[in-house]
Amino acid sequence: MQVKHVHYSTIEAKEPEEKGTKDTTIRWLITKEDGARNFAMRMFEIKEGGYTPYHRHDWEHEVFVLEGKGILVVDGVENELNEGDVVFIPPNVPHQFKNPSKRNLRFLCLIPYKD
Amino acid sequence: MQVKHVHYSTIEAKEPEEKGTKDTTIRWLITKEDGARNFAMRMFEIKEGGYTPYHRHDWEHEVFVLEGKGILVVDGVENELNEGDVVFIPPNVPHQFKNPSKRNLRFLCLIPYKD
């Protein structure tokens, strides 16, 4: 298995496959295709006025906010997101990321691979 | 299980338990104690002249460089580390992080929990 070492900007920013996102891209930074068996590292970027769907699922998120400001909705409650914030969202907790600010909101969001 | 949402700076920067580090701190940002069952998020900070040990182990690293410059040694070869770099280090690959620069090197390093 090879070491992967790239700058994040070399990885394509795609539209998320899940419906219900607006002005949001996803970069799959580290995945199974790189040999990562246990968890994947993704980077999201949400532009002004954009959002991810308000949804829930049976896996967790581990989040680190790299840049910008935004809103994290959990269980219907809005919380301000800022650069340097760390968020653990347990399985089955309804959540949404929104960006009402003028700057792009950029964060890492890691998920487990489940067999 | 609760959502955890904090700024990274509220989490204590500790000396790593492993021997062989110099001028390096670790913050355990998301752990089993938060309910994270599959993987842990840590932040390392290496000051000028500091390093982690050159070692290998049977689990992988998923790394994102937040700030600064440094050197990543893999299999004896030095590679420059820069802000925004993404690194996947597979299990059993010898590696070391070093900071010969004047600025602090700060990066996330995630590891799996193995049962």
Task: Please tell me about this protein's structure.
The structure is a homodimer of 115-residue chains. Chain A has 115 residues and is mainly beta. Chain A has a single domain, classed as Sandwich (Jelly Rolls), CATH 2.60.120.10. Helix content of chain A is 0%, strand content 54%. Chain A contains no helices and 9 strands. Chain A has strands spanning 4-7, 22-30, 39-51, 61-67, 69-74, 77-82, 85-89, 95-98, 105-112. In chain A, the strands form 2 sheets. In chain A, strands 2-3-9-4-7 form a 5-stranded antiparallel beta sheet, with no helix packed on it. A 3-stranded antiparallel beta sheet of chain A has the order 6-5-8, with no helix packed on it. The first copy, chain A, starts with a strand and ends with a strand. The mean pLDDT of chain A is 96.
Distance between the termini of chain A: 20 Å
Helix coverage percent of chain A: under 10%
CATH class placement of chain A: Mainly Beta
Largest interface: A-B, 41 and 41 residues
Rough shape of chain A? Answer: globular
Q: Judging by the overall fold, what is the CATH architecture of chain A?
A: Sandwich
Low-confidence stretches of chain A: none
Strands of chain A, count: 9
The portion of residues forming beta strands of chain A comes to over 45%
Number of helices of chain A: 0
Order of helices and strands of chain A: EEEEEEEEE
Q: In terms of quaternary structure, what is this?
A: homodimer
Largest sheet of chain A: 5 strands, antiparallel
Structural class, judged by helices and strands of chain A? Answer: mainly beta
Q: Look at the structure and name the CATH superfamily of chain A.
A: Jelly Rolls
CATH topology of chain A: Jelly Rolls
What is the residue-mean pLDDT of chain A, rounded to a whole number? Answer: 96
User: Radius of gyration of chain A from the CA trace?
Assistant: 14 Å
Spatial order of the strands forming the largest sheet of chain A: 2-3-9-4-7
